[in-house]
User: Fold this.
Amino acid sequence: MNDIIIIINWFILCFLIFVGIGYIVLLFASIRDVLLRFQEIRLGDVLNIMKSQSLPPVTVLIAAYNEEEIILESVQSALNGDYHNTFVTVINDGSTDQTLSLLINKFNMHKVTPIIPQLIEGTSAIKGYYVSDTQKNFVVIDKEHLDKSDSLNIGVNACRTPLFMTVDADTLLEPDAISEAVFYMMVRPHAVAVGGAAYILNSCKFKDGKIIEPRIPHRLVPALQACEYLRSFVINRAGWNYLGGSLSFSGAFSLFEHKAIVEIGGFDIGNPANDFEIITHLHAHKLDSDTPYQIGFTPAATAWTDVPKNLKEYWHQRVNWQWGTLRSLLLHKKMFFNPRFKIIGLFSYPFFLIVETLGGLVELAAYLTVFITWYLGIINLYTAVLFFLACWLFVTFLTMSTVLMSFVTYNKYRYLRDLPWLLTVVTIESFGFRQFHILARLVGTIKYFFKRQKK
Assistant:
């Protein structure tokens, strides 16, 4: 029995070392990518270039379900952008609150009969199509309730521009966000998707869709997520962007080529991680058809999004995300270690499946086996404590690195008085919250493999 436990411990140790090496590589790659993007924006006079009226029009698609508290701010942030050729479409997913009526009253909207081609089939029924008398570039589509993916597919069908951007209804765009994303796409041949960086809206002061005072969340649960988001966008997405293999962009804020999304049949209905699936699907389709393409990420394009305020909301979100991520990956399992899919098949896909998606389960097993081996007397208390300390130091090191990069480059959290609180949150993240997150992922995994639909 002891021999079996020791073998399991060695396997877990080797796996964690492999994971650590992978994240170190991503960290150094992300430093290079972030600095390149920062220099590109700082020296390239991007915003003046993007003021031209001849640039391709962009439609911002906002899928909304019961978002009466913030929907007007979200729409206003998109309308306030400095990119001239912007159109905004809100797809109301059968909200039962005042979301629709607030939009109709605020923007003086009236109902019309549109002609919407079924480029993507299988969408739910449209109940109403509204145009604004005060904002000629703004429309609202009211539909039967289904889910966000269905709403976006209807938005894609109604879109008349070559580019569109998906924005969550609880997200505020910075004025230059669309310009930065379009610039990144235009200067890269065959680009079909561009992801932007998302920061935490909770505790920020905003008015009329504009961030007045960006702040680190003062409540613990959103503040802990701020650490997660920094690691996700600065290390994960920027690192993979430099290596050429990101599979995950933020659903809160991503830019797409309209034609490319229509070709693959739109967003995966019923998938709470549709943002992950659409990028994975694009990679699979383009590589399978041997079509030249690029999918990129720029931290210069920024949005602020609302996150769960308590552990109950956080648990529900992360269980669904794990369920959806597994669905997204396994829909395209043919890429797993398949050289035909190049860096995506040989590196990105296996890393996302084994490390990002299932790695937390191995970490949970590591906690359990270390405790068991200590309890059985196979290792002493000093060794057990040393293991937990090493895990804490590594996660803290990664987060501290992202915080430093954030402050010396884009510096979205501008107030130094927030830094001590952020560093405190980074320090305590591994003591309980990280394990809570892993348990949520475990439940999401069990639900997926036992074919239990998300709630």
About this structure: The first helix runs from residue 2 to 44.
